[in-house]
Design a protein that fits this description.
single chain; 2 strands; 126 residues; 4 helices; mainly alpha; two-stranded parallel sheet
Length: 126
């Protein structure tokens, strides 16, 4: 029996070949894989688990921007080089949090109605 999934494709000897539908639509893992590389990332190999919500605050910090406190997860600081963290310590901001955001947000009532109608048509709202 020929193995399915990406392993079969990785052993292929040619760049292109005939398409063969083997009854699957993708290979997914609930844990996922995150790859970080760059001068501010320490070569640490496999690390503990981080939720996907940690990617955005990590990217903000690497870009030199403050991380909103209202974000759903903390940055992946264990992946960052300690020298980088000393030179560029984490900065947080309350901007964008519920407490400081305007009650209406960035959308107008008309925009809210359009979004609600689309979500209702898709079955997400009753």
């Amino acid at each position: 029996m020929e193995p399915s999934g990406p392993r079969r494709d990785l052993r292929a000897r040619s760049l292109f070949g005939p398409f063969q539908e083997l009854g699957f639509t993708g290979t997914h893992d609930a844990a996922g894989i995150y790859l970080f590389a760059g001068p501010e990332i320490r070569a640490a190999g496999r690390q503990g688990e981080y939720p996907i919500e940690s990617i955005a605050p990590t990217a903000l910090h690497l870009l030199g921007l403050p991380v909103p406190r209202a974000m759903d997860a903390p940055p992946c600081t264990s992946l960052l080089d300690p020298d980088f963290l000393r030179r560029a310590p984490l900065r947080f901001t309350d901007e964008g949090s519920e407490a400081t955001a305007p009650s209406q947000g960035w959308r107008s009532p008309e925009d809210e109605a359009v979004v609600a109608a689309r979500l209702q048509a898709l079955g997400y709202l009753e």
